Amino acid sequence: MDSVLYLLNAWIPVGIAVGLIVLGIFWFIAIYNGLVRLRNQKDNSWSQIDVQLKRRHDLIPNLLETVKGYAKHESETFEKVTAARNMAMAARGPGEAGKAEGMLGMALSGLFAVAESYPDLKANQNFGQLQEELASTENKISFARQAYNDSATRYNIRRETFPANLVSGGFAKAELFEITEPGERAVPKVSF
After folding, report:
1. What is the DSSP letter of 162?
2. pLDDT-derived band of residue 179, with 50, 70 and 90 as boundaries?
3. Residue 26 has pLDDT above 90, yes or no
């Protein structure tokens, strides 16, 4: 009987140690999987922005062609929009895309200012439809940016807080999609 008690007493610390090791492994796995899930949600959110930006980029050539038919001498504006669109299409990552999209937004504002000078163009059904589609796409981009930034913030908070920061060494910090151009932050002026 004494030998059984002796064996039990000898194995209890070993059992506790093994249990703690198993708990530690499950803890590590749970944190790691949580970080992977948040990273994938962040990447999916970025993909949603990318889809809307592609739609925006695809609408711009049609809009330019419509405006060119009415405003043939506004080539500088067309070149600015085309150059800004090309930069935006080549942008990689939220930081670079935010800057390029800000410049594209400013160039499009210039294009719409030119369109204001041509009443026939403003009355053109094709132009109106393209303008409405672009406005709808801009709203979708805005919502997708917000969803991405929320997702990236959740990911970054989880990645940087204890105890996940002990596991998150291989997980890069997510960039937020921010407006960097001062012109994009300005309140638009409306005049009647």
Report:
1. T
2. low
3. yes
Question: Taking the model in full, what pTM does it have?
Answer: 0.68
d(CA 32, CA 62): 46
CATH number of 53-185, picked from 3.40.50.10190, 3.40.50.1220, 1.20.1440.20, 3.30.360.10 = 1.20.1440.20
* Structure-block tokens of residue 113: 């200012």
**Phi, psi values for residue 19, rounded to 5°:** -60, -45
Q: Which DSSP helix (H) or strand (E) runs through 61? A: helix 2-70
Q: What letter does residue 72 receive in the DSSP assignment?
A: T
Q: pLDDT tens digit string along 125-142?
A: 888 888 888 888 888 888
- Measured CA to CA, the distance from residue 2 to residue 22 in angstroms comes to 30
| 190 within 8 A of 173, measured Cβ to Cβ | no
pLDDT at 73 (0 to 100): 65
H runs (alpha helix) in 71-180: 75-90, 93-116, 119-123, 125-160
Distances (CA, A) of 22 to 18, 28, 121, 150: 6, 10, 71, 34
Residues whose CB is less than 8 angstroms from the CB of residue 173 and which lie 6 or more positions away in sequence, other chains included = 156, 159, 160
Angle at 183 between CA 192 and CA 50, to 5 degrees: 105
